[in-house]
Amino acid sequence: MTMTTIAPVQRLRLLRELERKVLWLSAWTIHHANHLRPNRDGLKVGGHQASCASLATVMTALYFSVLRPEDRVAVKPHASPVFHAIQYLFGHQTQDKLERFRSLGGAQSYPSRTKDVDDVDFSTGSVGLGVAMTLFSSLVQDYVRLKNLGDGTRPTGRMVALVGDAELDEGNIFEALLEGWKHDVRNLWWVIDYNRQSLDGVVNDRLFGRVAEMFELVGWRVITLKYGRLLETAFAQPDGEQLRQWIDACPNSLYSALVFKGGAGWREALTRDLNQYPGIRQILERHDDAALHRLMTNLAGNDMQAVLDAFEGVNDDTPTCFIAYTIKGQGLPFAGHKDNHSGLMTLDQMAGFKKGMGIEDGAEWDKFAGLSAAPAELQGFLDAAPFNAEGRRRTEAPIVAIPAALPKPNDKKSSTQEGFGKILNGIAAEDSELSRRIVTTSPDVTVSTNLGAWVNRRGLFGHTEAEDVFRELKVVSAQLWRQTPKGQHIELGIAENNLFIQLAALGLSHEIFGARLLPIGTLYDPFIARGLDALNYACYQDARFMIVATPSGVTLAPEGGAHQSIHTPLIGMGQPGLVSYEPAYVDELAVLMRHGLEYMQQPKGGSVYLRLSTRSLPQPERLLTLEQQNDIVSGGYWYAPPEAGADIAIVAMGAVTPEAIEAHASVVRDFAGAGLLVLTSPDRLHTDWLAQQRSRGRTVGLVDRKPSPVETLLAPLSRDARLVTVMDGHPLALSWLGSVRGQRVVPLGIENFGQSGDIPDLYRTYKLDAAAIIDAVARAL
Ligand SMILES: Cc1ncc(C[n+]2csc(CCOP(=O)(O)OP(=O)(O)O)c2C)c(N)n1
Ligand SMILES: [Mg+2]
């Protein structure tokens, strides 16, 4: 059987059968995890049977009939079991993993790209982010297509988000919508599961009245799927219009409550309100309680024909929002109940549900048990599903070779931020695979983070050409702001959530669109916190990108406390999937950027965070040896090596390094062997140190294990040496160094909100200046 040979009636019949199966499998997977597996810790396993039920129709229609292999989907977090059930029917998910739903190695609570085996396109979990991910992915799809960076024969896919209605309370959705409008996004489908319920209760009616208008305002088509076939037929009968008006006016909470009460409840309410209409009395007479309940709950989002018609009616690339009226828990005993979000069927309820589904004991995982169509026919239909024509759809893309050294400026004085701009400008001047694959993006801080020169050379990205009006009118400006489809900078409005989701989408391009990109995003370091959940989301999906965060710390001095970042080094250390660096000098930065661009592409690599500064420092005159370059990548090097057995060392990172150099020059007069250690990454050092500890545990008795870089660095010092650490950030990032060999640490850094001032004043106030470091050395000894 192929899809084209299937008659519409046959397709509808089979999809309805599969819808039942998907509903059953999702409910059973959750039930099994909660009731039929040994529970060792007494914790509820959970899962969301009601949230699954409302989307069963839409997802069945999409995956088994409407979607194509090139489409990509973000599934509402709590519909994960529906997704796994569908993939199970396709043969991409195993019964074993369904049986271990939410247990170690089993199918994941929320669809996960990295942990699930069944071809998840976008991970979800933190509501709102998966939805925005589809929007920024559509932009990436266009970026790649317009530049021919991938496989040119690949058809353009639709980026589909299956959205919980309460997700529209998350501000990031609206930030994304506005950005999407500016960038003229296409091929986007957002299907809102309008079950009018969230976690705590019932979604606000008045809010949703505005939602459709908001979408239309930003150029979307809105298709509302409100009433199913049964209700539409009833509305067409005498006095049917009265019934329509009654339902239209019915508040969400009342409708939900009646859904839960069932046929008798509907009869009572309709008799009370509409008994004067003969047509309505006829409807009530002709339907017994069960039929009346079926009629009154016949919403279009749970009506297969209505759903298919809506999806198949869209044939262009206009972004489209489907508002699908559904019932939370449709088909389950707690349908509509406001407390059903985390509700689980009891053993008795499940027994009744199972009976209703026609499933015998022992046949719970059977793919076709309880369905009336023949297994061969159902299997043939699954095999012919267009979505499944290519099996697993994850793409690959070759690694872009990074030259042994990046073009590096040789300024005698420079800040790392300035150096960053010049290094990128050097790359932009080259015609290379590297320069073609880099894509930059920034939330309205392009110029102030020194991306300007790159953008001048490489241009802004947009679907259409737009000249720089200032340039055309001969108004002098250092900045050329010309937009073309060839442009390599995506300019965003000020919304750090959008920045990180854009980076997530760009950073998965090799696996989603088969085109390798090297995304670099810039922002002010303090505003990492604004987009932190989105950054975490990007890392969770294993997207690969580089963030350049500048300026940072109190070193941006006059700008005051609001813009001074204090704990971002701890974020860098604590965030999985992200390695963080804070170089002091531009030659270090060049080494780290080179390494980062390579690391971003390695299967076991990750994303990179560079914390930079606007403070201009005298640059050391040196040519870094390969060994020094390796040390910089590993996390640190001896700027002034200590004498063997020395009792004191200063450890510095980033912009405050000159103060450490000055203090060190003074300290060595009294303590000849004192060393000065410059760190580039406490994150790397810490990670490798812990990894080394763990491997030591495994190789008890092997005395010649290789020490980790931080152990090697600290080895020349005496066992009870003192370390004075200094950085422009929370001192905790370095104070752990004392645990490596049991040496005592006196940590200097920033623990409080900064003031405005110049650097000398601030470093004195916050005890980062040379005098403070010398004082700390004295205290330490
Ligand atoms: C950022 C975030 N905050 C809170 C939660 C907890 N949470 C999960 S689902 C949910 C309600 C979802 O309601 P809705 O989107 O309408 O989904 P459905 O009704 O389909 O279950 C909440 C508050 C979360 N997952 N993410
Ligand atoms: Mg909801």
Could you provide a short overview of the structure?
With 781 residues, this protein is an alpha/beta fold. It is built from 33 helices and 20 strands. Strand 13, helix 25 and strand 14 form a beta-alpha-beta unit.
Please explain how this structure is put together.
By secondary structure, the chain is of the alpha/beta class. Strands 10-7-11-12-14-13 form a six-stranded parallel beta sheet, with helices on both faces. The chain has a five-stranded parallel beta sheet with strand order 1-2-3-5-4, with helices on both faces. The chain has a five-stranded mixed beta sheet with strand order 16-18-17-19-20. Strand 2 (159-164), helix 6 (171-182) and strand 3 (188-194) form a beta-alpha-beta unit. Helix 2 packs across helix 14 and helix 24 (568-574) packs parallel to helix 28 (682-698). The N and C termini lie far apart (83 Å). 51% of the residues are buried. The mean pLDDT is 95. The chain binds thiamine diphosphate and magnesium ion (MG). The site of magnesium ion has 6 residues, from loops. Thiamine diphosphate binds at residues 48, 51, 54, 76-78, 126-127, 164-167, 193, 195, 197-199, 328, 341.
Strand content: 5-15%
Helix content range of the residues, please? 40-55%
Largest sheet: 6 strands, parallel
- How many DSSP-defined strands? 20
Shape: elongated
Which structural class should the secondary elements be placed in? alpha/beta
* Rg estimate, integer Å: 31 Å
Distinct ligand kinds: thiamine diphosphate, magnesium ion
Which stretches of 5+ consecutive residues score pLDDT under 50? none
Count of discrete alpha- or pi-helical segments spanning 4 or more residues: 33
Mean pLDDT value: 95
Largest beta sheet: strand ordering: 10-7-11-12-14-13
Separation of termini?
Answer: 83 Å
